[in-house]
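Reply to dn_fold:

You asked what the input looked like. This is it:
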Amino acid sequence: MEIAIVTDQPHWTGVGIYALELFELLKPQIENLKLIYTGAVNDDFPNQEKLEYMKRTKHYFNRPFLIRSNYRKLLKDKSFSGYLFHYVGTDYSSLKKRPGIITVHDALKDRWLKDPKLNFVGAVNELERMRKFREMLRLSRHAVLIISISKKTHNDFKNLTGSESIIIYHWILDDKFKKRSRIECLNKLGLNKDYRYILSVGNNRPNKRIDLIEKFADSLPQEFRLIKIGASVKSKNAINIAHVEDDLYPLYFNVSDAYLHLSDDEGFGIPLLEALGSETPIICRDTEINNEILGDACVKISEGGISGQAAEVISKLDDPSFSTELLKRMRVRRYFFEKSKISEIYRNAYTEAWASWSAIVNPDQHVI
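and this is what came back:
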């Protein structure tokens, strides 16, 4: 069985992280597993195949064209003619010529049209995202296997296309996201020990609800600060950090009293698993995906009157009996996202997809 995980997104993006972590998850089990980066952005993508014909650019508007060019070159590379491709990027234009596996991360919404802060570059970027998403919906019929990362994504995708997919959750990286000494992590990060911290991670797309995060941050008690990794927030209580080194990123969960997740709509929400692994309580809204992933292993708040709920939530988390019960629920919830369990599911899915694909490309060859 020869499989190549192919992505056109840099390794620091959500999709790129998924591609890299999937490769690292399955490489010990699948000897002939490759990771191929077809993106246009210069990126020293870990573990990628070094292919000299892949071109990169610094010009923003040239990226979509260069990505397609890179895919075309890959399809002509005879050294990968026997590989089943698992497309986990954003450009699925190669599916028609080279059927493979695809992963559906979410069903994009046109919420960006309502964003009053949208600028020209942002509008172009969102238009391109929507174009690629609709292309993926159209070309998905050529896939030999469709993977959805949650029941919500599965249902949204089926409603849009009528096609079925299998559900494979993401997994907790238990070697990175685990319980650690808070004091030691504070020292490594150089954070003020006199403050207590709430963590939030994410970009500035409309569904991330930066406005709600700002309201929550503004209403924090004076001994608290909100650490915001990614897109910045405007709050007197915020510590904005645009970029964090990979080895330091998990430590921010260990120094935080809670992880704040106030998105409107997500296909999954990887930081939820990072918080679960770190045993950091999660504050979130009562949404479909949060209920699917977390169940009752979190503290839910409502959008209405969010400014007045920060002190109440913190008071709950400071209650020993409540926090002990919440920790029990979190540990139970972690079972669904164990690395060994998810790894086995992927291995079985790949084996079945390989058999289906081999029957297409080599119809006279019996595949075991």
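The mean pLDDT is 91.
Hope that clears it up.
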